[in-house]
Amino acid sequence: MHSAAPHHLPFFIPGPDGSDALMVVMGFFLIGTIFWVGTLYWKLHSLPERMAHKSHKLQFEIVAVLGLISLFTHQHIFWVAGLLLAMIDLPDFGSPMRSIADSVERIADATPGVRPGEPDAETAFAANSAAEVRAKEEVHHA
């Protein structure tokens, strides 16, 4: 230490070897803060996608694509659109239409005048014919 220097120097003044503890601490603090802000940004950016995924929305894929578009183009309107779409419940038109199509298919496959559970006329005729053929074969073999 220099003879003109006071004996009790403040902690923020580097020592004679050039080591600066405050600079090292602030460097780690800056790196930690950058990672923390980056993580906060990513969580905020994925908010619409997480909202749509948690509520099992039909438009989940659209919200995810809007989030990616806003990420790569830096157009905030896509993020806002994804957020609004994640909050809105779109009606499910697919399930009732599928049910109607299944019912119409069952109606189209049904034979008129035959209840479901009763054999139709062709099946009954085929079963009777097969029984008659077996009976005739047993008579001829006896």
Tell me the helix content. 55-70%
Distinct helical segment count? 6
Give the N-terminus to C-terminus distance in angstroms: 129 Å
Low-confidence stretches: none
SSE topology string: HHHHHH
Largest sheet: number of strands, sense, barrel closure? none
Structural class: mainly alpha
What does this structure look like?
The protein has 142 residues and is mostly helical. It has two domains: 68 residues, no CATH class; 47 residues, no CATH class. It is 68% helix and 0% strand. The radius of gyration is 39 Å and the shape is elongated. The N and C termini lie far apart (129 Å).
Topology:
Layout lengths: L20 H25 L1 H8 L5 H14 L2 H12 L6 H16 L11 H21 L1
Which keywords apply here?
mainly alpha; 2 domains; 142 residues; elongated
Outline of the structure:
By secondary structure, the chain is mostly helical. The chain contains six helices and no strands.
